[in-house]
Specification:
disordered C terminus; ten-stranded mixed beta sheet; about 15% strand; 12 helices; about 325 residues; alpha/beta; disordered N terminus
Length: about 325
């Protein structure tokens, strides 16, 4: 327990730069990479309306009693509690960013999960963090795009390309740590709009995200095991350890929230993660995403999976202190 607490507090701000040389020419989609599910949900705005994409029951309740509905949705939609730079310090290298525009919000774009967020400067914060950690590579998954117009997409993509510039890894590449370091590339951006992706070689197509859509951790694990047996995608993909509840349950349990549910299931989910191995073969993992990445040794655990791929007899001590 003391070791786990120490690892949780110390973080993994430069873990990619410290991986053994044997792993530096491995495609990034064959490494084990910690990710955060709904990365921006730490700053949801309880004064904002429920998203139009949410179930009719939630939207109806929001229209009738917003002062009760929105705090309730916030408790269940909050899946992280740290800003992006803190998540990256812990070792997160996959960020799940869900983007939306408010119905009457002009052209300002927000992040969203159930309701909208307060912070809109996350990409700038991430750029500053990357400047301070030049050998770390982050995968940004942009998705959902609720109410975005063609013009909104154009402005967003232009902003991303301008902000990250030469740090962007083009989708034609097979990125490895060494190849990215040699070119100064630090950012892979997947964009869940194929029409936009086809117009911009800087953008990657949507990254498959496996999630069970269940509140039961045993069903989550069973689903992931079933998906593994079907074979892994050729490129990046995500195994989601996140739990999901439906609208009636959320409204009937307004004070419980996602954090309490996650904490009850976390030991079982982390045990499954600890048994995994990264690689290109069927059944091997790539990105593993979790809720509340700062309450456990999740990031250190996933990073440590990479050391399972080293040749037998090689003894390495990774930067997290985990035995390998």
């Amino acid at each position: 327990m003391e070791d786990e607490r120490r690892l949780q507090l110390s973080g993994n701000p430069d873990w990619m730069s410290r991986l053994p040389e044997e792993l530096q020419d491995v495609p990034l989609w064959n490494l084990a990479i910690p990710g955060s599910h709904d990365s921006m949900s730490f700053c949801l705005d309880v004064s904002s309306p429920v998203l139009r994409s949410e179930p009719c029951l939630l939207r109806a309740m929001d229209a009738l009693v917003p002062c009760w509905t929105r705090p309730c949705v916030s408790r269940w939609a909050t899946t992280q509690q740290s800003v992006l730079s803190k998540q990256c310090e812990l070792g997160v290298r996959f960020l799940d960013l869900r983007i939306a525009r408010k119905p009457a919000g002009g052209h300002t774009l927000f992040f969203a999960h159930g309701i909208y967020t307060l912070m809109t400067e996350a990409l700038d914060e991430l750029a500053a963090w990357l400047d301070a950690h030049p050998k770390e590579i982050v995968i940004i998954s942009c998705s959902h795009f609720e109410l975005l117009t063609h013009e909104d997409h154009s402005h967003l993509v232009e902003y991303i390309i301008t902000l990250y510039g030469k740090k962007l890894c083009p989708s034609q590449d097979i990125p490895t740590l060494r190849s990215c370091w040699s070119r100064g590339q630090q950012v892979v951006v997947s964009y869940d709009n194929q029409q936009v992706v086809l117009q911009h070689p800087e953008l990657w197509t949507e990254i498959p995200y496996w999630y069970a859509d269940s509140p039961d951790p045993k069903k989550v694990i069973a689903y992931l095991e079933d998906q593994k047996h079907r074979g892994r995608p050729a490129g990046f993909y995500v195994s989601g350890l996140n739990l999901t509840e439906d609208a009636p349950y959320v409204l009937l349990h307004p004070l419980q929230g996602m954090r309490k549910m996650t904490m009850r299931a976390l030991s079982l989910l982390l045990r499954w993660a600890s048994e995994q191995r990264p690689g290109r073969e069927a059944g091997e993992v790539n990105v593993v995403c979790c809720d509340f990445v700062d309450v456990s040794h999740f990031c250190s655990l996933v990073i440590g999976l990479n050391y399972k791929t080293l040749a037998p007899g090689r003894c390495h001590s990774n930067q997290t202190g985990w035995p390998t």
